[in-house]
Amino acid sequence: MDISRVVIIGASHAGAQLSASLRQEGWTGEIILIGDEPYLPYHRPPLSKTFLAGSKSIEDMYIRPKNFYEKNKIQLVNGHVTKIDCKTKIVYLENGNHISYDKLVLCTGARVRKLDINGSHLPGVHYIRNAQDILGLKSSVKWTKRAVIVGGGYIGLETAASLRKMGINVTILEYAPKILQRVAASQIGDFFNQVHTEEGVEILTNIRIAEIAGTQSVTGIYLENCQFIPTELVIVGIGVLPNIELAEEAGLKIDNGIVVDEYCYTSDPHILAVGDCTSHFNEHYKRQIRLESVPNANDQAKVAAKNLCGKSQKYQCLPWFWSDQYDIKLQIVGLNNGFDEVILRGDMSSSRSFALFYFKNNEMIAADCVSRPLEFMLSKKIISEKLEVYKEKLSNENFDLKESIVSLYVH
């Protein structure tokens, strides 16, 4: 292979998987992985759960041990990239160093969306994205008895569950009429509203925040209706923004993310991109999407590695996600946008185990499975293969999916 060096910007899930997959696929040249955190690449989902609770250390969350990178001759560089020069094929670092590349892969991920109101920069206001965020939060959690979470999305709910397990009183403030409204169907929002209420979380919706009170540190939050909520700890989870600035300044095509084709290549033939920062055309749903998920980052990285090694492969993976809250594991497969029918399997009003299947024009397009791993795996198959099913059997709890699965399909 005449290409000798691949440089990866971003020591994330995507970057870590890509560096490993390159060796597995036969890349014999140099691999340089640049990350701006003082740690080896680590798993991010445990941050708001076991890492916050203190049951896992940062070392426990490493995706691979240090000797893996040494053994596979993957050079780890700690630094922040400030510029990409596509003409000379050089990346420039904040410390003044520069690194040339033959192929470049952007795994720049996303960053938290920040509050921009009076008091939002006070000590006591925290975000959840990386290990440093959680280390700061852990020091605050030690002495607080009450926390306010701004944002009722998955990261906010997962954090609320962790804090309740630690005995902290939690109030969630949500701008929309329902929690999870931007990312889930109303039934799932209603279910998790009930779960968190049962666990002692106060949830306030249709909320407008006026300002965060305090001088030296946070003392509370003023709402636009003049209500005051006292607290020393504010955790903000209002979404993320893709890190596209490097790509944009380098002249790459952008559309709610760095645009990549089915082979993970950007508009520059020497640059690929993988993970949360990317926007790709999803063949299954026939539209451009950007996914914020670990499975997408890992799967895209594997495809990018194959293509860099000359093994042409298209990225055609079905989106899937998960969320852990209390004793519940929610597994989501597919995208439910535009559904016209919902089929329920189980009892979601009095139990914490059920599945919701979303249909559009009689085709299953997505499923939300709450503590239902069998239904999750089955849904993956049905959606990816566009199988037609008997809905009455799917909704019937007395119908044994495992034993009678063949008779579920319409032939």
Report what the structure shows.
It is a single chain. The chain is globular, with a radius of gyration of 23 Å. The chain is an alpha/beta fold and 411 residues long. The strands form 7 sheets. It has a 5-stranded parallel beta sheet with strand order 3-2-1-7-19. The N and C termini lie far apart (48 Å). Helix content is 23%, strand content 29%. The chain has helices spanning 13-24, 50-53, 66-71, 131-141, 154-165, 186-198, 245-249, 294-308, 373-385, 391-395, and strands spanning 5-9, 30-35, 74-78, 81-85, 90-93, 98-100, 103-106, 110-112, 125-127, 146-150, 169-173, 202-204, 209-214, 218-223, 228-230, 233-236, 240-242, 258-259, 271-273, 278-282, 287-289, 320-325, 328-334, 341-346, 354-360, 363-370. Helix 1 (13-24) runs parallel beside helix 8 (294-308). The mean pLDDT is 95.
- Assembly status: single chain
Number of strands: 26
Integer average pLDDT: 95
Query: How far do the termini sit from each other?
Result: 48 Å
**What percent of residues adopt helix (DSSP H or I)?**
10-25%
Low-confidence stretches: none
Give the spatial strand order of the biggest sheet: 3-2-1-7-19
Structural class: alpha/beta
